[in-house]
Amino acid sequence: MLTVTNIETFYGPSQALFGVNLAVEAGELVALMGRNGMGKTTTIRSIFGLTPARSGSIEFEAKDLRRLPAYRIAQAGLGLVPEGRRCFPNLSVRENLVVTSGPGYWSLARVEELFPRLAERRYQMASTLSGGEQQMLAIGRALMTNPRLLVLDEATEGLAPVIRREIWSAIRLLKEQGQSTLIVDKSLSELLPIADRCTILEKGRTVWNGQPDALDDAIRDRYLGV
Ligand code: ATP
């Protein structure tokens, strides 16, 4: 459903991506991996048109995303949970969810069922939520748009263990429901068991692509530093 071919992306004069290739098929969960600064977030920003790619192609369901402005890309069926969660701090939890709601499977009730903590805090201002709860809200907001492809950038980074477990359970549930997902996350022990495929970036290039069980120690040492 998503095919990224050989994209190159710049921040002003400085080149960050030198040829990234990656694909997500319907129903798959694909892990985008690599050490810090290797280009994972920039790849996601390129897909969403936030830092547009200068060359290469990005196709989503036969649409050329490089030709669409950023606001049209979300409408095309992609949902982003950006690094560092973005919610409206002065709106309640429910208001934050309603703002992004569209026609489809996801409703307030279904998001609150996925994340019971959000149900308990539905009238609370988003600014008063813990970091992990805000992350749940950010995921809930993305789901309310009924994205055919959900993209999660470091959704569990820096969170308390109990909240991380809840978010991973939700991600596993979404996968069982057939949600197509592209995910950047450092917790390989959670990510690899549910990933259908992994794409590894090194210095702005795709250097490895394969199934998680083919990720041997040599590749891990070389590209992931673990
Ligand atoms: P991390 O896990 O640390 O977020 P990453 O793999 O997501 O790493 P990117 O954030 O995509 O990596 O960064 C890729 C390269 O682009 C790095 O060399 C980084 O310094 C550079 N870069 C990222 N954001 C900017 C920016 N706003 N302006 C200039 N260079 C940037």
UniProtKB/TrEMBL annotation:
Residues 2-226 form the ABC transporter domain. Gene3D superfamilies: P-loop containing nucleotide triphosphate hydrolases. InterPro entries: AAA+_ATPase, ABC_transporter-like_ATP-bd, ABC_transporter-like_CS, BCAA_Transport_ATP-bd_LivF, P-loop_NTPase. One of its GO terms (molecular function) is ATP binding. CDD domains: ABC_TM1139_LivF_branched. One of its GO terms (biological process) is L-amino acid transport. Coiled coil: none annotated. Keywords: Amino-acid transport, ATP-binding, Nucleotide-binding, Transport. It holds the Pfam family ABC_tran. PANTHER family: ABC TRANSPORTER ATP-BINDING PROTEIN, HIGH-AFFINITY BRANCHED-CHAIN AMINO ACID TRANSPORT ATP-BINDING PROTEIN LIVF. Belongs to the ABC transporter superfamily. This is ABC transporter ATP-binding protein.
